[in-house]
Amino acid sequence: PVASSRAATSDYSISQGTDVHEALDQSGHTFKPGWKEIFRMNQNELESEIRKVSRDSTLDPRRKAYLIQNLMTSRWIAAQQKLPQARTGETSNNEDLLGCFPSFRDPENQVFGCEHYKRNCKLRAACCGKLFACRFCHDKVSDHSMDRKAISEMMCMHCLKIQAVGPICTTPSCNELSMAKYYCSVCKFFDDERTVYHCPFCNLCRVGNGLGVDFFHCMTCNCCLGMKLVDHKCREKGLETNCPICCDFLFTSSATVRALPCGHFMHSACFQAYTCTHYICPICSKSMGDMAVYFGMLDALLASEELPEDYRDLCQDILCNDCEKKGTSRFHWLYHKCGSCGSYNTKVIKVDSNSNCSTSS
């Protein structure tokens, strides 16, 4: 009787939890992405979604807490869902489970690879033992990240033989087939389309012709920079941080990174989007380019404006973000020109109602 009572209580709790789940799912807003997509997210994507939900002011507090809790526990939930399949043997084909089949970058022309890279092999992840065309394909469907430097085995997609990772297939029938035009034994990286080099200082493979050709390694910034940036502002380990816009780690990012005049970095795509509405660095607030034309337009605008008499002689103490000097400026609600460098990238420190600015610049 006790056991049956406990079982009944347990069944009731599960049923009640399901009802709450359905009620929340059917109330007001439909959460996107759905639960199936959540279970396939990697760590970075989960963190991004959690931040997005946390910032959403339109969500009810109870629903927001519910969504964040489910996002944070989705890895455990996904793992629990996989356990019954392993016990019942639903995945009977071990080869399919390991990914022991070819994948194509161009299925019509039978070009091996994936959406990220063209290559003739799959890599066997040291973490889970499964075969993937690249680390991005692995991370996309796994709840952990692949350490490609720990890879010791690969599968040739021509003969489907698993073998030691290397630049060619060792199977006699493949006749020393090359896995890709470029192979790095340190990074275990294959690329058959782009020009790639390995930087021994970054200990990473990067796109380019090589050090001393179109890139150089700055020992202070500890990163590879284009030859045009030989004269740049150094910041110690400047690239070993997250992009201030998308928060992805810059040092190992596969996307193009842009160096700002102030010495900070961000993705080129993020820079293009950010500069549509901003011109100052999101980290240090310095101007990110030559703003002479824009500042000239502001000069003309202020010259054509006439302030009310009560504000004409008011003075404001300002700090210039570009030259980092303090000064004074005539009162204005928006624009305050630095008397030292002529920049409008300034911030007001104090408004002095007793000071007369009739002779100030």
Describe the protein's architecture and organization.
The longest helix is centred in the first third of the chain and has 25 residues. The protein is α+β, with helices and mostly antiparallel strands and 361 residues long. A hairpin with a 5-residue loop joins strand 13 and strand 14. The strands form seven sheets. The chain has a four-stranded antiparallel β-sheet. Strands 16-15-17 form a three-stranded antiparallel β-sheet, with no helix packed on it. A two-stranded antiparallel ribbon has the order 1-2. It folds into four domains: 73 residues, no CATH class; 101 residues, no CATH class; 78 residues, no CATH class; 46 residues, Single Sheet (Rubrerythrin, domain 2), CATH 2.20.28. It contains nine helices and 17 strands.
| Distance linking N and C termini | 91 Å
Helical percentage: 25-40%
Rg, rounded, reads 29 Å
Residue stretches low in confidence (pLDDT < 50, at least 5 long) are 1-30, 83-97
Structural class designation: alpha+beta
Write the H/E string, N to C. HHHHHHEEEEHEEEEEEEEEEHHEEE
Mean pLDDT: 81
Global shape: elongated
The biggest beta sheet reads:
4 strands, antiparallel
Number of helices: 9
Strand content: 15-25%
Strand tally is: 17
Q: Order of strands in the sheet with the most strands?
A: 4-3-5-6
> Please, how many domains?
4
Pfam family, one: zf-RING_2
InterPro entries: RCHY1_zinc-ribbon, Znf_CHY, Znf_CHY_sf, Znf_CTCHY, Znf_CTCHY_sf, Znf_RING, Znf_RING/FYVE/PHD
Keywords: Ligase, Metal-binding, Zinc, Zinc-finger
GO molecular function: ligase activity; ubiquitin protein ligase activity; zinc ion binding
